[in-house]
Amino acid sequence: MIKVLFVCLGNICRSPMAEAVLRDKINKQGLEQQITVDSAGTGDWHIGHPPHEGTRKMLDTHVISYEGMAARQVLSEDFSAFDYIICMDESNLTNLRKLEGGIEAVIIQFMDLLPEETLREVPDPYFTGNFEEVYELMDAGCDVLLSKIVKEKL
């Protein structure tokens, strides 16, 4: 089983959106027995909370399930439990590096999946309010990530 973890600051906007989008793509390709997805935040403010209302509305618009999702904080054990850890911005990467112990996971900055984009970090819609922009990035980046996983691991 290939395991992917998306990481953002609070685990209520970007990373749960990415989790839901990638899970949807995995299910549509019939790969749910081979790839699993989770998300977490570097902060602890929203532990146990569902995705942000803006994230839920965007996922509802695209008929993508977020059922059962609740925010959690990244754990040092995640570095050995996951094959890929995908962070949304430089701050998340810095915070991850403070946690990492015996690192086994491949850590990727999400926007490195989309080198043609001028943005180098996924904007945080908690502050910008632009959930559509983030969805478009998640949709495109998750396509690239899924192709990468299939080529490298399956």
From TrEMBL:
SUPFAM superfamilies: Phosphotyrosine protein phosphatases I. SMART domains: LMWPc (SM00226). The keyword Secreted does not apply. It comes from the Bacteria. It catalyses: O-phospho-L-tyrosyl-[protein] + H2O = L-tyrosyl-[protein] + phosphate. It is found in: Cytoplasm. InterPro entries: LMW_PTPase, Ptyr_pPase, Ptyr_pPase_sf, Tyr_Pase_low_mol_wt_mml, Tyr_phospatase_low_mol_wt. Keywords: Cytoplasm, Hydrolase, Protein phosphatase. Its EC number is 3.1.3.48. GO terms for molecular function: acid phosphatase activity; non-membrane spanning protein tyrosine phosphatase activity. It is an enzyme of class 3 (hydrolase). The active site is at 8 (nucleophile), 14, 124 (proton donor). GO terms for cellular component: cytoplasm. Residues 2-148 form the Phosphotyrosine protein phosphatase I domain. Coiled coil: none annotated. Belongs to the low molecular weight phosphotyrosine protein phosphatase family. This is protein-tyrosine-phosphatase. The lineage of its organism: Bacteria, Bacillati, Bacillota, Bacilli, Bacillales.
